[in-house]
Prior knowledge:
Elements: E1 10-13, E2 21-29, H1 33-40, E3 44-50, E4 53-59, E5 69-77, E6 84-89, E7 93-96, E8 102-107, E9 111-117, E10 120-125, E11 129-135, E12 138-143, E13 147-153, E14 156-161, E15 165-169
Parallel strand pairs: 6-8, 7-9, 8-10, 9-11, 10-12, 11-13, 12-14, 13-15
Antiparallel strand pairs: 1-2, 2-5, 3-4
Amino acid sequence: MTLPRRLLPLAAVLATLPSASGAQRAGCSADNAETARRYCDQIQIRVEENGSGVIIRTDYPRNETRNLSYSANLEIQMPETAPLELRNRFGHVAVHKLRAPAAINNSNGNVLFMQTAGRHRIENSFGNVEVINNDGDLTIVNGNGWVRASEITGAADITNRFGEIRASTRAP
């Protein structure tokens, strides 16, 4: 029996690293379960350690058929004092309790940044940005979504195209 457009989740745990760890889940949907499973089996999460940190990259299979979609959800745990550089497309980003500089570049998804400290730059397009409780300087560049920044100490430079901005500070 074939179930069209069925979501087939896979679960795996990434190897625990000295500086980062996490889990991944991939899902695929296609005209039939066999096609979905074949493409889902080809999604690879690569973890590479180098002198400056850990690089985690998702490699998707080449899409040679119609009516196919796939995704990967990553949950990464890292030391709160390690600098973060994150690039993502077509998904949401959430960062909690980071106590180090961060540079986030996201598109086609929302960004949530909570209980953080340090100098941060967030660039996003086609999604919303929300920052709650940030100690330090903050730069947000967004387009096609709203921006909300609350309980901010330090300088805040917020730019948005085609969306609302709401910002508030708190006493240091």
